[in-house]
């Protein structure tokens, strides 16, 4: 079952024993293309493959649109949470991104703290944001 769920995610990166998987979907019903607003949702799964308990502290996103405009987003936790993951545990969340172009990309990293209090960064894989041509 775990392999079937993992296959739904299109992009993955593993750093320091932590895997981040991303599935992204364009949302035509939430987009307003006539107003140059395109919207995507992305589902993130964080998998703790380490031998220690870790806690997600902060996030850093680099969002780029088709014109090369870059937005940096930094903040505490993810969707209002700073999840604690035991060895072998996963954490899933869903969020969204709106762009003023029909193509773009996202990438970044999370900062975690281990049981010893030491912090480390985990890569969020690069993933494209692309609306279908017919939209």
Automatic annotation (TrEMBL):
It holds the Pfam family DUF525. SUPFAM superfamilies: ApaG-like. It comes from the Bacteria. Residues 12-135 form the ApaG domain. InterPro entries: ApaG_domain (IPR007474), ApaG_sf (IPR036767). This is Co2+/Mg2+ efflux protein ApaG. The gene is apaG.
